[in-house]
Amino acid sequence: PLSVANGWAFIAAGRVDNRAELIARLPGAGPAQTLSDVTLLGQAYREWGEACVAHLYGDWAFAAWHPVERKLFLARDHFGNTALYYYADERVFAFASDRQALLALNLAPITLDELYLAQVLISWTAYHGERTIHTPIQRLPPAHTLTVTPDRLTVRQYWFLERTPELRLPRREDYVAAFREIFDEAVRARLRPPDPTDLCREKPSALAGESQESGEGRGSDIAVTLSGGLDSGSITATAAGMLQKEGRRLTAFTSVPLSDTRAHVGNWFGDEFPLAQATARHAGNVDLHSIPATTLSPIQAIRRALHIHSEPGHAACNQYWLLELAQTARTQGCWVLLTGQKGNSGISWTGVPYSQPLTFQWRYWGGRRWLKEWLKRAAPPGLLAAYRKSRAPRDGFRNAAIHPDFARRLNLLEQRLSDPNEQPPRTPLEERRRILQPGRSFVGALWAETGAAHGLDIRDPSGDARVLAFTFSVPDWVFMDPATGLNRWLIRAAMQGRLPDEVRLNRNLGVQASDLVPRLRACAAEVEMALAELAQGPAAAYLDVPYIRQVWHRIQSEDTRETRNTAVTVLTRGIMAGLFVNEFYGSAA
């Protein structure tokens, strides 16, 4: 909602997690029971101005307009599930949480950012910063503010995770206790009901016929995506315990394959439901639902995802179960969906062996691997780039749908090899910083857009700025147990008693979209139609359609892990990118 007071206007959306702290510090804030998060954001801006971003935690975005000064100030949270796009030229500035709203204004000719497209196709998770695939539409990255005046546009980063000082505690166990405290607060903050100023919709009736692992079919406002892993399992167990004290239950959703996946996942596991069941049983307050994802084929889901996000992405293969999970959660009557998307580089960081004693490194890696790892980190960047270029396939990129001529025109291989973020990290903290730096990943924006499309408030406790700062401050050696070689030690130790040991101590990794190959075979006609569209449209200049067809032929007849991998990196990602390109140029025409 837009409010005007004291000569300035304010508009905001989102959730504030440190409400009690802010209300205590803001004079005349009003009673907490009736104070909406949007109003609280406005009062924080009134009190501290642009410096208020240092006092706010949660998932939020806001804009403040000062007409006398002709100044507009926009800000986005540290690392939340939010989205904020803008357009600027000499005469016009426009912003929105939905890119489609800006595109519909037709403010200027929109061109395709070809480098952005190429980076998606080759899995180059580059630091995109403000870029989108639509030039000149830009996005405000997390942890950034934007100030607009008649003569200047200034983007400023206000939070730097890498500046977090290292935390030194006397004992390894002390880190566990400190982590539990801050992690529990992050989960607790995300169990609040949605702000009625943001969501004012009538709840739909529960979906009939859904099987439940436990409980009597009672719905819950709060749901969680539950895999067989540590991140979502930790969030599920913690949230379930908190809700139980309030007499409330937690709903959990787990994607399940429709067929045997062993041929396609190798030594990993493709069915995460048994481990999810173990977590739900151990928590004792969880209604677990399987998501077989039968309503959308992989190709239908890709088309739907393009409609929601307006750009292609790396995770085209996951859209069929992600979209059905979100739709089922909303139909079940859930308003909040918890995820653990940012856990791998935060709460469940593996630890890096070379932060351990040399004797451990030698035992863990062996002599040859140990020497290789240390050479990678000690060699000059130019030498490493030359070595990687000499090892690259003759046509440029292996297992990617990109057209070789397109890659050569962009000088893509050289660009990637010269990217500092593509060089081996020198330290464990550098490795994590690259993953977590604001603008590196758009997962938060994608979840926000998915949530908006389904009427869900999607929240990620593992992406809480305070949790990320704490885990970043923990010395890397804490994340591995030198006695056993067990990685992800911090989260495993913190969840002792909350998670069953079969989940907590499991070292095998799960595979998302593990039954992608048989699902593609089941919608072969749709795949053929999509490939025909790519071959006949503008996408053929960007995609190696004959190579994609070769991959498709192998997918139809071979059952191997490599077949599934190329279904992810070449077929589905290529189809998503190609359909986008055709629609982009079709709309422009």
Any overview of this molecule?
The protein has a six-stranded antiparallel β-sheet, with helices on one face. It is built from 24 helices and 16 strands. Strand 3 (58-66) and strand 4 form a beta hairpin. Helix 6 runs parallel beside helix 8 (273-283), helix 9 packs across helix 24 (561-588) and helix 11 (358-365) packs across helix 12 (367-378). The model is unreliable at 199-219 (pLDDT under 50). It has 589 residues and is an alpha/beta fold.
End-to-end C-alpha gap: 37 Å
As a percent range, the share of helical residues equals 40-55%
Rg on CA atoms, Å:
24 Å
Mean pLDDT across residues: 89
- What structural category do the secondary elements indicate? alpha/beta
Short description:
This protein is α/β, with parallel strands linked by helices and 589 residues long.
Any chance you could write out the topology, listing elements then pairs?
Elements: E1 2-5, E2 8-16, H1 19-25, H2 37-48, E3 58-66, E4 71-76, E5 85-88, E6 93-96, H3 99-103, E7 111-112, H4 114-121, E8 134-135, E9 138-139, E10 144-149, E11 152-157, H5 172-189, E12 222-225, H6 230-245, E13 250-255, H7 262-265, H8 273-283, E14 286-291, H9 298-309, H10 319-331, E15 336-338, H11 358-365, H12 367-378, H13 381-391, H14 404-409, H15 412-417, H16 428-436, H17 443-454, E16 457-459, H18 465-473, H19 489-494, H20 501-504, H21 516-522, H22 524-536, H23 545-557, H24 561-588
Helix pairs in contact: 5-18, 6-8, 9-10, 9-24, 11-12, 22-24, 23-24
